[in-house]
Amino acid sequence: MKKRTLLQWILGIIGVGVIYAIIVFGLILSTYREVPPAGIDTMIVLGAKAWGSEPSPILKERLDAAIPYLEANPQTVVIVTGGQGPDETEPEGVVMGRYLESQGIDPNRIIVESTSTTTVENIQNASSLHDISTAIVVSNDFHIYRAKRTATQNGVSTVYGLAAPSKTKATFVSYLREVVALGYHLIFTH
Asked: Which has the least CB within 10 A, 51, 118, 155, 169?
């Protein structure tokens, strides 16, 4: 009798976990194909690891997703965000700004935020550098739902997402990590 009860508990916990994962994965997928309208004043590109003076593949995906919009909307100011981690040689924001310039984006349109270490700090620090009420947030497809929600929770009244398609070998792990991170975000941030 006790073995059966234990098995029922284990199956119940697994069942709840599967339902949770399906719901959270659905939320992640709900915004990754969003297309922001033309003419938005501000774009925030969220940082990710830099490899020396170059963007990592994930960071490059984000920057490459931002460039077509910036080219089509020359009035849009772009804020690149990200500080310097202990294993980075310079801040992510600096690497990002330099990359955008190398791709033809006018440096006068680029604002570099180089101290943040989390998504919340990315948004808060970007807001302290530039007046933001409406913005496009750029991140990878697995992160865009949480990034938009974080921006809204931190004072950006209208947020559009621009999701960079994830094509690196870390994509599967990134989605799994985001299922946990988004669950934590939904429960513990308000």
From this structure: 169
The pLDDT of residue 168 is: 74
In sign, the C-alpha dihedral spanning 141, 142, 145, 148 is negative
Closest CA to 151 of 111, 178, 121: 121
Phi-psi region of 31 (alpha: psi -120 to 50; beta: other; left: phi over 0): alpha
For the chain of 190 residues, list the mean pLDDT of each consecutive stretch of 10.
79 84 76 90 96 95 97 98 94 98 98 95 94 94 90 94 85 73 70
**pTM of the predicted model as reported, rounded to 2 decimal places:** 0.85
Handedness of CA 163, 114, 59, 117 (dihedral sign): negative
| In the chain, domain spans | 2-188
Q: String of b and e for 23-36 (b: at least 16 CB within 10 Å)? A: ebbebbeebbeeeb
Amino acid, single-letter form, for residue 183: G
3-state secondary structure the chain: CHHHHHHHHHHHHHHHHHHHHHHHHHHHHCCCCCCCCCCCCEEEECCCCEECCEECHHHHHHHHHHHHHHHHCCCCEEEEECCCCCCCCCCHHHHHHHHHHHCCCCHHHEEEECCCCCHHHHHHHHHHHCCCCEEEEEEECCCHHHHHHHHHHCCCCEEEEEEECCCCCCHHHHHHHHHHHHHHHHHHCC
